[in-house]
TrEMBL record:
Gene that encodes it: ispH
Name this polypeptide is given: 4-hydroxy-3-methylbut-2-enyl diphosphate reductase
InterPro entries with a match to the protein in the record: LytB/IspH, Nucleoside_phosphorylase_d, Nucleoside_phosphorylase_sf
Role noted for this protein: Catalyzes the conversion of 1-hydroxy-2-methyl-2-(E)-butenyl 4-diphosphate (HMBPP) into a mixture of isopentenyl diphosphate (IPP) and dimethylallyl diphosphate (DMAPP). Acts in the terminal step of the DOXP/MEP pathway for isoprenoid precursor biosynthesis.
Keyword Lipid metabolism appears in the UniProt entry: no
Binding site for isopentenyl diphosphate: H234, H267, H317, S412, S413, N414, S455
Binding positions for (2E)-4-hydroxy-3-methylbut-2-enyl diphosphate per the UniProt entry: H234, H267, H317, T354, S412, S413, N414, S455
């Protein structure tokens, strides 16, 4: 483990941090610097050698939404006109949240006096979440070491120091501070220089870009609200951003006012949904991925030739529901074992959900062909180019990595398949953003593979790399297995 130095100002803070540390924790030293920036600066000048530096203790809230006992993890420390970044803040904040604490991430301000009243409100306008009197000089002395600043709120604008609520605030803050030490030891254990191998291609595919642009253009053309049936793509960050711009996501069309602008998601819908939209005079814009639309067309074509349509896919996925809806008597199989249970009375044709792991889908398809020698499949592989490329790329980085991180939301099929593919070669985990990364995964890992599902925004990958830089120097290398040039045209409804 990297040697960790935890600086606190007060004896009570040092006591609370030490109390939370496991007796077996080694390489951790808690020191008391004294209160105020002058004492902190003197302590900073003689700090012992350490591999990682953390400042922990109490703080006063500037943001009125904070309450006593809330934990502020600084993403930057502001002091004396300087700004000291704390790049690993999302990793720490996520770990503290999983420990059961109420956590906010944002700027921490260091002042040379206790602030209150009008000054407190003025400083809150700067965007800083909280204020203390020691972190700034200590952050200035980090000198390239991994730096963390974790402060627990004691007083707030509504409950200032030396008020009737002070004692309660201290008790809540003290209890929270005892839980900070163990997290900081895991943070230090994860601190190290490392290599990050970026899989390429990664992140958005052409179908996802098209779907998002459709909603954005609809909002620009018609103004909010624009209704979207289901998530436009399976990513929480994308959905949240579009909601902030005026998109309203609904599960079913009966939640949409008659005549409203309505977008069908990239995963496609069954004909019954289209009929319902027509019956309610909804102004529909179809964002179905053209590659999903191809599978729908294949299902209709095979059924029109009298064949029993069998779809290889995952039950409950929106794409699967839409494809099955094209042919009401079609059958779904999820794995090889279900092929043996198929009961059919006519020749078989099989199709595939576009976001499956290619090798597993082929295993099921081979079982279908073995049981039904006259079975027909699609003229071209149904699994989309983006899924295939991303799976090949993640294999390339997993071969060299001690750990693979896949950025994507839990309901993203293509992201889940990337975890499965990488997981056959090395430990692999799905994360929605840096806050989902468990520090214990990183300990002792010198090389990390990093990719993102086709519905995950590229900036999230950058955010993971930035957070890892907060643990030590990062060398980034890319492993490219394909060049993607596919682009899809937009529907006429958003071109006018």
């Amino acid at each position: 483990m990297t040697e960790l130095l935890i600086c606190t100002a007060l004896g009570l803070e040092a006591w609370a941090v030490r109390r939370g540390l496991d007796a077996s924790a080694t390489g951790v030293r808690v020191i008391r610097t004294g209160m105020g920036p002058r004492r902190a600066a003197r302590a900073a000048a003689v700090l012992p050698e350490s591999g990682a530096l953390a400042v922990a203790g109490f703080a006063g809230a500037l943001d009125p939404a904070l309450r006593p006992g809330d934990v502020v993890v600084a993403n930057e420390v502001r002091f004396g006109g300087q700004v000291f970044p704390c790049l690993s803040a999302p990793l720490l904040a996520g770990e503290l949240t999983r420990a059961g604490l109420s956590v906010r991430t944002g700027p921490l301000l260091t002042c040379d006096h206790v602030v209150s009243g009008v000054e407190r409100r003025r400083l809150a306008g700067s965007g800083a979440l909280a204020v203390d009197m020691e972190t700034g000089p200590l952050a200035a002395a980090a000198d390239g070491r991994p730096l963390a600043a974790v402060r627990v709120v004691v007083d707030t604008p509504r409950a200032p120091l030396l008020s009737a609520a002070t004692l309660r605030g201290f008790n809540l803050a003290r209890r929270a501070l005892t839980q900070v030490g163990p997290v900081l030891t895991r943070w230090a254990a994860a601190a190290a220089p490392r290599t990050v191998l970026l899989a390429a291609p990664r992140s958005f595919c052409a179908g996802v870009e098209r779907a998002i642009e459709i909603v954005e253009r609809a909002l620009e053309r018609d103004g909010p609200p624009v209704y979207v049936r289901k998530q436009i793509v399976h990513n929480e960050h994308v959905v949240r951003e579009l909601e902030q711009r005026g998109a309203v996501f609904v599960d079913e069309l009966d939640e949409v006012p008659a005549g409203a602008v309505t977008v069908f998601s990239a995963h496609g819908v069954a004909p019954s949904v289209r009929d319902e939209a027509g019956g309610r005079n909804l102004r529909v814009i179809d964002a179905t991925c053209p590659l999903v639309a191809k599978v729908h067309a294949e299902a209709r074509r095979f059924a029109g030739r009298g064949r029993q349509v069998v779809l290889i896919g995952h039950a409950g996925h929106e794409e699967v529901e839409g494809t099955l809806g094209e042919v009401p008597d079609s059958l779904l199989v999820e794995d090889v074992s279900q092929v043996a249970e198929l009961s059919v009375d006519r020749p078989v044709a099989y199709l595939t959900q576009t976001t499956l792991a290619a090798d597993e889908a082929e295993e099921v398809a081979a079982a279908i062909r073995a049981r039904f020698p006259d079975a027909e499949g699609p003229a071209q592989d149904d699994i989309c180019y983006a899924t295939t490329n991303r799976q090949a790329a993640v294999r390339a980085v997993a071969d060299e990595a001690g750990l693979v991180l896949v950025v994507g939301s839990a309901n993203s099929s293509n992201s889940q398949r990337l975890v499965e593919v990488a997981g056959r070669l090395t430990p692999a985990y799905l994360v929605d953003d840096p806050g989902d990364i468990a520090l214990e995964w990183l300990a002792g890992v010198a090389t990390i593979g990093l990719t993102a599902g086709a519905s995950a925004p590229p900036p999230l990958v950058d955010a993971v790399v930035t957070a890892l830089r907060g643990l030590g120097a990062v060398l980034v290398e890319e492993r490219k297995v394909a060049q993607e040039t596919t682009r899809f045209t937009l529907p006429k409804e958003v071109l006018s």
